[in-house]
Amino acid sequence: xxxxxxxxxxxxxxxxxxxxxxxxxxxxxxxxxxxxxxxxxxxxxxxxxxxxxxxxxxxxxxxxxxxxxxxxxxxxxxxxxxxxxxxxxxxxxxxxxxxxxxxxxxxxxxxxxxxxxxxxxxxxxxxxxxxxxxxxxx
Length: 138
Description:
The chain is mainly β. It has strands at about 5, 10, 25-30, 40-50, 55-60, 70-75, 80-90, 100-105, 110-115, 115, 120, 130-135. A hairpin with a 2-residue loop joins strand 10 (about 115) and strand 11 (about 120).
């Protein structure tokens, strides 16, 4: 995703699992595993900043499940632009299609911005958030 976007959906922070309602979707990707016993390595990164909070959260979601199965955060400076990586691994569990979704969350107050900050887009539109899934034999 290279689009400059913002959202004011807020994540409360603390010891609470991030949900899709508390952020916005940066990317999604579907895969149909070749074997239910294979492992899936999910890697993503977002380019983001927060307008009123330097704390930003990135979460991974599977299919239509609202609660994240993996998340990470960065405690930074307000309006600074960060590239935030996230990595997770799991057993495929089936040979049905799986859709992974990468979400971004601002913590506490303000807005979160993708590929820029409150001043607008950065790097001329070539910064991007991404998501990849690799399947391998367990």
